[in-house]
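Table S7 (text form). Paired inputs.
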Amino acid sequence: MKQIEHLDDLETYVPPGHDGTVNRRLTTAEFCQNFELVHGTLAPGGVAHRHSHEKEHQVIYVMAGAADVQLGDEPVVRVEAGGIVRIPPGVEHLVTSMGPAALELIIVYSPPLNR
């Protein structure tokens, strides 16, 4: 893994259960066993369908755009640029990009996701 790179040079992937999403791993378990850092972009209308992570804590920082987020059975909350979403392990969550611009996120998983 190079120590200095540009976002555009990183490999993209679509997580399972996500539509309209393009992610890039900024760092992985090979760099640090304690966390994984991801840049995510969801097109307007893109969805991270309801799912949970068995052992990973997830923190989402909204850089741009707007999302409707539901954690567990709680009401849906609109989260915009500057918003932070903290998701403990085992909590089902749903994220929908509300547009009109793409939703741009920084996501931390700790420990890193199993791939």
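Next pair, protein 2 of 2.
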Amino acid sequence: MRVNVDLRLKDVPGQLIRALEPISMNEGNIVGVVHNHDLVTGGRISVNVTFEHKDQKTLDAIFSAWRERGVEVVKMGEIFRTFAAEYLIAGDLPHSALRKITEGIESMEGVETIDLQYSLSTSTSNKTVLLLVNVRNKAKVNEIDEYLKTRSESDDFLLIRGTGV
């Protein structure tokens, strides 16, 4: 799991290494560090750290070590890697069909975002739709592929899968 934290450290030599040590000591992997030494507030400096950890137990051990070392955790957020899938849909697609497609994908667990862009002609009911979906699990893309394939066969529209993921 990847985590991003904002820390506040005492503005004295050695504090940055004291803040980073608990991550490596608990088998964490540091991905990035932004050390803003120019901004000192209340005798403390801000440091942003992104790291990966195995489980909640290791994360708890890191936080415990920080408390013991006087490191203040100001903000923490979990970072999820997402996988993008893109589709081109073309055909006679009423708004109700587009709504059903997006609602079907939206109901799937692990879907982060759905972006739907379409163009239409005023002289026909045909639409061209660009559908972009971001998911947390790469395997979820296969589920969306199958769902859209089934919908394209039942609703008689052309489905073209993008080359990503």
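The helical segments are 15-25, 56-69, 95-106, 138-155.
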